[in-house]
Design goal:
Among the domains are: 1-69, Tetratricopeptide repeat domain (Serine Threonine Protein Phosphatase 5, Tetratricopeptide repeat); 88-180, Serine Threonine Protein Phosphatase 5, Tetratricopeptide repeat. Helix content is 78%, strand content 0%. The protein is built from 20 helices and no strands. α5 (73-84) runs antiparallel to α6, α7 (106-118) runs antiparallel to α8 and α13 (221-233) packs antiparallel against α14. The radius of gyration is 28 Å and the shape is elongated.
Length: 353
């Protein structure tokens, strides 16, 4: 075996142990023996990248680009050095160069999509994620599909987040389910799947996803809040109540949707006084950035007041809900309840204003 091969075997042993700087030093010695060896340069570039010596890695990949101008890997790897430093604006042109050489380069489609979304180019990022998903699904070789499955799952996950931000929970759930299929031990993917399924009121499916997320990442309040909501949805009220009570008040105050979930449980149990007590504090400080949440909160408050036969406060709550309406089906419910309460007020000679 040649000295070069012996050195590269030694470098790889260091790399296997993640001793990246030592791998760099040995690979440089090997390259000194064969300065134009592209395979050694390729390895050296990777070791430098992992050692976070980004400028030196870029210099190596620039040499490789000159030696092999038709190879998409090297502009991608230059872009990756910037990407790894979260310098997305600098990364994007290099990813575009790589895609001009290989339009179905799955990892690049994903990474450029992520970079575009980070720079608030949502539409462009979405298109890249869709291309990534389509390219992966067209792969026929099973081993190649397996190698690229992590990037496919990540692209599906990012698509799910884009759809969820638009309140398109049907497509979000489908995208998250595809992500989980190829990354089933990722608590964040499972949580987002469960959350989307809760929004769709598919509580049994949500419960399964959220229980797994809770097992993988225990005692996370954001997971447990949606887990409790799923338990509530399938009728496991005692278990849901225990979880809600475990979440500290300061967390609920920071994320008031958890109070809303808990109040919804009280309304379902006809514990109207408890629901009112839970909801009143959060309705004093509504967040206009999330109108859909507050729409639902005021509907619950109206239902709770109706449960106590306080038609004046119920009417006021529904009027607030009407102000916050967000194009949901529940908007019709609000109008119906307002008309019913107005009729009741006339019958009882009560002034609603």
């Amino acid at each position: 075996m040649s000295d070069t091969n012996l050195l590269m075997e030694k470098a790889q042993r260091f790399a296997d142990e993640q001793r990246w700087q030592e791998a760099v030093e040995v690979a440089r010695k090997a390259l000194a023996l064969t300065p134009n060896n592209t395979w050694i340069k390729d390895k050296l570039g990777w070791y430098l990248s992992r050692a976070k010596q980004y400028l030196q890695a870029i210099a190596v990949y620039e040499e490789l680009m000159l030696q092999t101008p038709d190879k998409a890997k090297y502009p991608y790897m230059i872009g990756y050095q910037y990407y790894d430093q979260q310098q997305y604006v600098k990364a994007i042109p290099w990813f575009e160069k790589a895609l001009s050489l290989n339009t179905n380069y799955i990892v690049v489609l994903y990474r450029q999509g992520y970079a575009e979304v980070h720079e608030n180019n949502i539409s462009k990022g979405e298109k890249l994620f869709v291309r990534c998903v389509r390219a992966w699904r067209q792969i026929e070789d099973e081993e190649e599909r397996k190698r690229a499955s992590k990037d496919y799952a990540s692209a599906c996950f990012q698509l799910g987040k884009i759809y969820a931000d638009r309140f398109d929970y049907e497509n979000a759930a489908k995208a998250f389910a595809s992500a989980v299929e190829y990354d089933s031990e990722n608590h964040d993917k499972l949580y987002n799947l469960g959350k989307a399924l809760v929004k769709l009121e598919r509580f049994e499916e949500a419960l399964q996803a959220l229980q797994t997320a809770d097992r993988l990442k225990p005692r996370q309040h954001y997971i447990q809040a949606y887990l409790a909501r799923a338990q509530q949805g399938v009728g496991q009220i005692a278990a849901a109540e225990r979880l809600y009570k475990r979440i500290p008040e300061h967390v609920k105050n920071k994320f008031p949707y958890i109070w809303t979930f808990q109040a919804e449980m009280y309304v379902q149990q006809k514990c109207f006084a408890e629901a009112i007590q839970t909801l009143l504090p959060i309705t004093k400080r509504p967040n206009p950035k999330i109108p859909q949440n507050w729409f639902h909160t005021f509907i619950l408050l109206g239902q709770a007041y109706e449960g106590t036969d306080d038609i004046v406060e119920a009417y006021r709550a529904y009027k607030h809900a009407d102000e916050w309406k967000h194009g949901t089906k529940a908007a019709a419910l609000v109008q119906e309840r307002l008309k019913i309460l107005e009729q009741l007020a006339r019958e009882r000679n009560v002034n609603l204003i």
